[in-house]
Design goal:
about 90 residues, alpha/beta, 3-stranded parallel sheet, about 35% helix, globular
Length: about 90
């Protein structure tokens, strides 16, 4: 199961460290990608911005999403995920 990607979207460095430590302590050895705001998370998820050209076939199977984020808040990230045909729950 090590090929499952976890996307952690967290702007607080202390909470990021705490989450990563909890994953490690529980022997979760999956790749963790960290986005520090909602805009960066959307870029990662949709392969835009700094993540243009990223293999879009490698999508995270788990997203740990802070709701209070700079630039684009977590609820807006969820709205955009639901609105996109490739990431919505109804696909």
């Amino acid at each position: 199961m090590d090929n499952i990607i976890i996307l952690l979207v967290e702007d607080n460095p202390d909470d990021e460290a705490l989450t990563l430590r909890a994953l490690k302590k529980n022997n979760i050895s999956n790749q963790v990608v960290v986005a520090r705001d909602g805009a960066e998370a959307l870029d990662y998820l949709f392969g835009t911005g700094n993540y243009a050209g990223r293999d879009s076939g490698l999508t995270p199977q788990l997203v740990l999403l802070d709701l209070k984020l700079p630039k684009v808040d977590g609820l807006e990230v969820l709205r955009r995920l639901r609105a996109n045909e490739h990431t919505s729950c109804s696909r």
